[in-house]
Amino acid sequence: MYRYDEFDHAFVSARVDQFKDQVERRLAGELTEDQFRPLRLMNGVYLQLHAYMLRVAIPYGTLSSRQMRKLAHIARHYDRGYGHFTTRQNLQYNWPALKDMPKVLDELASVEMHALQTSGNCIRNVTADHFAGAAADEVADPRPYAEILRQWSSMHPEFSYLPRKFKIAVTGAERDRAAIQVHDIGLHLKKNATGEIGFAVYVGGGQGRTPMVAKKIRDFLPVEDLLSYTTAIMRVYNLNGRRDNKYKARIKILVHETGTEELTRQVEAEFRVLKETDLKLPQKDVDAIDSYFAPPSLPVRPEGWSELAAARKADHAFSAWVDQNVTPHKNPDYGVVTISLKPIGGIPGDATDAQMDLVADIAEKFSQDEIRVSHEQNLVLPHVAIADLRIVYDLLLTDGLATANAGLITDIIACPGLDYCALANARSIPVAQRISERFGKPERQSDIGELKIKISGCINACGHHHVGHIGILGVEKKGEELYQISLGGSGDEICTIGDITGRGFSSEEIVDAVETIVDRYLEIRTDKEETFLTTYRRVGAAPFKDALYSEAANAA
Amino acid sequence: MSVKVLTANRLTDGEAVWLGANGEWLEHIDGALIARHAEAVTALEEAGKAAIKSNLVIDVNVIDVEERGTNLYPLRLRERIRQLGPTIRLDLGKQAEKPKATAA
């Protein structure tokens, strides 16, 4: 893992001191709220419905056990005993007091963490594949490049007041687990024909009120040009992005209005100017960052496979968990474990302080002291020996963390929604809970297979509903919650925005509507191997609309 | 009939509060100062501006409520949730102190 150097420590410490002073001046009345709001937002502090909210950055979703224990400690001492892992691989506390914020930031700094650039019109926390450095299908670890981007973008004087927020995601495998095509910049780490590492560069993706899939503007960018090319994109955006209308200010609108060809021309022209400047990455600097992410030295553990076979035979629930929540590792003696934060009927992404401590203990003993946060609001133990799966499972079971549903219909993404969020129009979490309960039986989930439901409580789409196989958007209509359904969205390498089915459904109707869609899928799939998304792509929206609206019409 | 009250979040901890008939900011909607006509609403808005200036509260808003017996019932779900707490965690927020209430 990356460790702070002296500069990093001094930088974060100075920022904590600065914010401490700003909070004191605010509480003393020396700063007005209008003056203070942009300052608190730069430090990750929002105001929500019931209290302030602090969003903590977890760069590329990577945590050590020590850091996770600190997050648990903060939850226990400054919040209400839990935290919420978000779709941007961050953690949000829902109840901290303003007067405590400097102390919380001090605590975070003590474990090399902060809340900088988790809000505001700047380059936000860079996200990456949550299986980085572990997955069997990976070409190269994306985290060193995410870290280089983090360092470059932190307090970047030219890019701290952009037209709008800016999100970058990096993936290192053909299978896109980081949803790079719905980011402002998506980087796909790959090898060219001669075996060199570089990036395919995507620009102008995003969700929100105008969802768009990013356009590929470079098929292969050498690593040494990462910062000069990214700077070129940022300059074109910073100069030409709209500042007159916040709903048209994201780079996706600029790409759309300019046209991909012309925008690419502008970026390439800017890049030619920057290419041979000091933005060019020296190999020794890349190597230095790379060394922090060197693969752990994993002991040979071949005994695991026979032990696993026996354990699976003896316990069906354990076997189902291995099938669903363990992914192949680069090292055949190891697996990548997804810890579901989606217990049946639970709150997606929430973890108690005790659960965080438990995960930290398990990671320390059984996963090389590493934990990941996924944008799907789960946790990941990236390096678990096959021989240790049983004991890890048993430990997770002790605190409700062994739900065998990764990628299934109950592994639902949901934003905080109107239960917490000041921007929301409708609740998300209770809908997720009711769907989870409806489909919670293991046999039923297994029969349905891979199906990603994503729920947002407003058009800002923090719950990624546009790329849900089934997406649900909550709106407010005539004082009531109403839920609009979209189908066929996908955030992976074949990225698509879902199609809206038609009129929305009330809170009482929405779970039945989802069940109607699922039942229709089960009727028309060619066989069990054909997933919901594949079926949708084969047959289109018509059979589902027919089921939804003709049934509704019949009922009426 | 819909009437109006003034609500905000307390500066120090973000707690949802309502302007009381006694001029204090209250942690519960009971006892909130009720505006029944346009002049009274204007007075509420002025009180809100003054409270912002005195740095007691932030995010001040006049909201619609209905008088139901002795209770005040906010018309928007958003405000009912602010009044009580998250509907998914009845152990948190003001509802944890007032078990009889329901938010939605």
From TrEMBL, chain A:
Could you tell me which residue ranges the Nitrite/Sulfite reductase ferredoxin-like domain spans?
52-110, 338-396
Molecular function GO terms recorded: 4 iron, 4 sulfur cluster binding; heme binding; metal ion binding; oxidoreductase activity
Per the database record, which ranges form the Nitrite/sulphite reductase 4Fe-4S domain? Answer: 119-271, 410-548
Q: Does the keyword RNA-binding apply?
A: no
InterPro entries on file: NIR_SIR_4Fe-4S (IPR051329), NiRdtase/SiRdtase_haem-b_fer (IPR005117), Nit/Sulf_reduc_fer-like_dom_sf (IPR036136), NO2/SO3_Rdtase_4Fe4S_dom (IPR006067), NO2/SO3_Rdtase_4Fe4S_sf (IPR045854)
Give the UniProt keywords, A-Z.
4Fe-4S, Heme, Iron, Iron-sulfur, Metal-binding, Oxidoreductase
What Pfam families does the annotation carry? NIR_SIR (PF01077), NIR_SIR_ferr (PF03460)
The domain of life is Bacteria
For the keyword Metal-binding, the answer is yes
UniProt xrefs under PANTHER family = BLR3264 PROTEIN, FERREDOXIN--NITRITE REDUCTASE, CHLOROPLASTIC
What protein does this entry describe? Sulfite reductase
Q: Which organism is it from?
A: Phyllobacterium brassicacearum
Lineage of producing organism: Bacteria, Pseudomonadati, Pseudomonadota, Alphaproteobacteria, Hyphomicrobiales
UniProtKB/TrEMBL annotation, chain B:
InterPro entries xrefs: DUF2849
From what superkingdom does this record's organism come? Bacteria
Q: Which Pfam families does the UniProt record give?
A: DUF2849
The entry's protein name is DUF2849 domain-containing protein
